[in-house]
Design a protein that fits this description.
Number of helices: 6
Strand content: 15-25%
Number of strands: 9
Radius of gyration: 20 Å
Helix content: 25-40%
Order of helices and strands: EHEHEEHEEEEHEHH
Distance between the termini: 15 Å
Length: 180
C-alpha cells in the first residue's frame, strides 16, 4: 500500500481552526489504516496520539478545490498531511491493537447491488459513480481491491439472486480463478 501515512481531507478554509480539524481528521484516517480493530479511539494510547497530531506531522500541503462562494456548505480546500510512520508506530506500541503494515493482500470484491427485488453485480465500466466512491473508500482504508472480470463464464456461473444462499458455491469456484 502506497502512502500509508498520508491522508487527504477536505476543509472549509485554510484558517488555523479548520486546518487543526483537518489535521485531526487526517490522523484518524491514518490510524484506521494501520490499527486492526473497531474501537481504536477508545484506547488511551490512541487518544494520546490524537490529542497531539502535530507531533507526528512531517509535512502538509493544501489546494483550493473551488472558488464558488455559493458553495458555503461544501469544502473549499483539500489538505494533504504526511505523518512520520516510524514515530507513529513507535507510539502505538503501547496500544492494545495489532498493527497492520503496508504489505496487504488484495481483497476480491463481489458487490451485489439490490434495488427493490432486482439484484445485479457491481461493474466498474457501467457504474462509474459507484466505482469512484469504492476507489476512494478503499484508498482511505488502505485496502487493495481487485474486481472480478465478469467474463462470459462468470456471468453464466454466478446468479446475484442466489449469492447469499447457504451452500451456493459458484462464487467460491469463480473466486478460485483469482490469485488473491
Amino acid at each position: 500500500v502506497k502512502e500509508l501515512f498520508v491522508a487527504d481531507v477536505p476543509a472549509f478554509s485554510n484558517d488555523p481552526e479548520d486546518r487543526a480539524q483537518a489535521l485531526h481528521d487526517a490522523l484518524a484516517i491514518v490510524l484506521q489504516r494501520v490499527l486492526v480493530g473497531d474501537e481504536i479511539f477508545s484506547d488511551p494510547s490512541v487518544a494520546e496520539i490524537m490529542a497531539q497530531p502535530v507531533l507526528f506531522l512531517l509535512g502538509e500541503s493544501s489546494t483550493v478545490v473551488t472558488h464558488d462562494p455559493a458553495r458555503r456548505g461544501s469544502p473549499a480546500w483539500k489538505m494533504r498531511f504526511h505523518f512520520d510512520g516510524d514515530r507513529l508506530l513507535d507510539a502505538l506500541k503501547t496500544s492494545r491493537w495489532a498493527i497492520w503494515n503496508e504489505i496487504r493482500p488484495e481483497t476480491l470484491l463481489w458487490l451485489v447491488i439490490e434495488r427493490g427485488t432486482s439484484r445485479q453485480f457491481f461493474e466498474r465500466q457501467t457504474m462509474p459513480d459507484w466505482a469512484e466512491d469504492l476507489r476512494r473508500a478503499a484508498q482511505q482504508l488502505g485496502l487493495p481491491i481487485r474486481y472480478p472480470r465478469f467474463d462470459a463464464k462468470e456471468r453464466q456461473q454466478i446468479d446475484p439472486h442466489r449469492i447469499m444462499q447457504p451452500g451456493y458455491d459458484a462464487l467460491l469456484q469463480s473466486a478460485a480463478r483469482y490469485p488473491v
